[in-house]
Batch of 2 targets.
Target 1
Amino acid sequence: MSYSPYLLKGQKALITGASSGLGEASARCLAKAGAAVVINYHSEQKAAEKIVHDITADGGEAIAIAANVAREEDVKALFAETLQTFGTIDILVNNAGLQKDASFVDMTLKDWNLVIGVNLTGQFLCAREAAKEFLRRGVKPDVSCAAGKIICMSSVHEVIPWAGHVNYAASKGGIDMMMKSMAQELAPQKIRINSIAPGAIETQINTSAWSTPEAKANLLQLIPSGRVGIPGDIGRAVVWLASDDSDYVNGTTLFVDGGMTLYPGFAKGG
Ligand code: BGC
């Protein structure tokens, strides 16, 4: 897939959790579309630097910055360095997220807090810093008709309950209302905030769901389109939501899930 390198020319994007998976794909796709990108990572410094290297070798602009998005001081430092390097920010991809699965009665408070802290509080902290900068700078019509765009990485589990993953599903359900409430509050200032809800996409987070033939066959029963997603499916949706092509889209969730939310069990039942 190739984009016009002018689609996001002159725009600066920060992608959290970008050293692998959906964050990496988002960063690579945004860079291909012409944005300068900040690859935020938590601990995978080598992987982040490799992505920076690939993007710059391809003529793009990228830097890597470490930060734990669940920590306010880390997020403030992440944005300070971003603004110092790139001058401003136009696009935030609120992607960093993790799973810590356990049956409900065995779920520890530590694992509840960890998942809510990164997946939900992390998105709040980053969105708040991005929104402050969007409001300070306002619209630059030669760059974008929006003052800024935020894309929240949600999941089909913002609507599909998920036994054994109560902390994760709760974090994604929270993202839905946080995203919509932020969008309602900031739309008059020309800030656009939307979510992407991926279904099963082949990444490290769900290797056990697709890496053996048996697991994959089970998984495919949940996907009417008949294939597991690839990270690029999400990266391309991110580019569209970040670009002025989606200027009239605000406060919505784009499901990129091969039909997983279509209640596939009802195709032959009910
Ligand atoms: C989860 C994956 C899962 C997918 C579909 C995602 O949000 O992170 O582990 O495969 O939802 O259930």
Target 2
Amino acid sequence: MSLFSKCKGCKSVHHLDSTKIRNVVLLSHSGAGKTSLGEAMLFCSGVINRLGNVADGTTVSDYDPAEIKRQISINLSVLPYEWRNCKLNIIDTPGYPDFIGEVQAGLRICEGAIVVVCAVSGVEVGTEQVWGYVSEANLPCFLFVNKMDRENANFFGVLKDIQAKLSVKCLPMQLPIGSQKDFQGVVDLVKRKGYVGTGTQLREVEIPSSLAEDVASYREKLVEAVIEVDDELINRYLEGGEIGDDELYRCIKEAVKQRKVMPVFVGSALKNIAVSLLVDAVVDHLPSPAACGAVKATNIATGAEETVEPVADAPLSALVFKTVNDPRVGKISYFRVYSGTISSNSQAWNSEKGTAERVGQLFVVRGKTQEPVAQLVAGDVGAVAKLTVTATGDTLCAREHPLKLPGINFPQPVLNMAVHPKSRADLDKMSTVLPKLCEEDPTLRVQREVDIGEILLCGIGETHLEVAAERLSSKYGVEVNLGLPKVPYRETITVPVKAEYKHKKQTGGHGQYGHVFLELEPLPRGSGFEFTERVVGGAVPRNYIPAVEKGVNEAKAEGVLAGYPVVDIRVTLYDGSSHPVDSSDMSFKIAGAQALKKGLAQGQPVLLEPVVNMTITVPESFTGDIIGDLNTKRARVLGMRPADGFNIIQAQAPLAEVLRYAIDLRSLTQGRGTFTMEFSHYEEVPSQIAQKIITQRNQSQ
Ligand code: GDP
């Protein structure tokens, strides 16, 4: 009977204890074969009876139209299946750097990782990146050298590359039998046996004589590394004693858990060679939630930190790690249970929101299929539809024991694009649909820029935002174009001036009369706009002064150079005159506005532009290129300090020059650089550049 169906009856759910679960995240540079590997795993387990293909768009994991179109994974997907009486939750993640949020969510909820490396390309930029994340998360980790069947596949070359660029602790557990079109299987270094064949149809064979020497030497390296976890075995080994396979297995498991060894496996996902042996190793050597022990959580009621045990009869704690808005089903929340048991048709407490949630039918998701389950225990992963307030990162728990698990380390958005709806109807729908999109993707943000009259979509990169725009269309029927956002320029004056305006219309009927003298003074950057008055003797009657201020304020919204808002000046109303019958609020408002315009024109106006502070982190070898590029962007480098093979560069640059910096930095550093940016201050635009901006703006208006 299947583990899933056991859950349905609900009687024997505790058979599925946390020692029998493995949560494993697949990571790699884009295209190394994660999705294909996930597919081969499902095929080996018998969950699917036809091996899907990325090129045909038929894999279980990549079913989203945007994924099929681009042939890349965009969403993490959960692939649960059974293997040797264990439940495996394999999390396939996107390799493309724009979707790193999904990778972070996958890393957060797993006890182990498999880093897939292409046997032809070796360690790529994305491999180093995911390696960094795995190391940061301190996750036990396997490597899988994939595509051994491909022309130019070179296991030993790639192994050298892995040990040089990732870690010397990456040691083979297997060696390939044959290579490229002759790739047939692997030698298991622990068992000292060869296995050839595809899927689960494996045949045990003698170790080919050409490999005998390598098998002996790599086995020795492995044994020496793993027995480090057991002093007694080290002594026995040093004295020339034998170490049994079982003892070795125990040591491997512990060495993997302590990250003393990262075993390297080899195979072909496409041909389904040696994949089943990799899955065996997942069950044998990667830790279960139970083996990893308690995790930390905060008790919301007491504020105290608690440890949460991965057992089924503890109070519930479950972390929501992904939210999907399905147009048919509604909102689906994916969660990982850390302690206790969650049941279908029950109540849970959202500790973040302080609200009860009705938990309907639970299910396990596999690609686009959903299987209902009655309960899920500590360590397991599942989903539930239609939670009302729960968002990604929230903890579901028991009301009487409110817990908050640590959230997910999502990266901040770095690229902003303006969203231009294609029609009025699209504009109307945007305000309800954009928040839904952001709910699904915490690395996406919507920002309303009242100032420039634009709605900005902020994300990780160009592809990320393009996919978001496509999703708006395919999921919600809202059509938009994306463009670079406008720069919020400002205008100001550079010399103090006085300006007079008399608004007078006294021909026939009720006349109009308002007359003001204004003084305009430049203020330091960042001061804003001030209005004061020092009218004496009622030259402008008190009751009209608010009207003058209103006129000035309205007029300052559009400067005289290019219609940008005016800042950093003080306007003082100091004189004027009035007419006992013809003066009115309206007349004084017009006089105030016109006097301001006159003053601005005389005050040698200039254009101001926003300048941002940037912190750019790049590998040392890219520093020269980055600084050279910053110089072409009118930036000032303020400082630099080294940190662990990287340089952290502090700079200031005009926003107009760095709107596309997320794209530029990625191409300059092959994706190895990161940066943050925040508004600093406004500065005068150099006159030649200002002239261009003014001409362009006046042409477009
Ligand atoms: P992902 O981006 O890491 O998920 O990689 P995919 O699974 O999408 O694979 C990228 C491409 O490599 C696809 O065209 C696969 O068919 C191909 N591929 C994956 N695994 C293998 C393999 O073992 N051998 C060969 N020859 N091609 C493979």
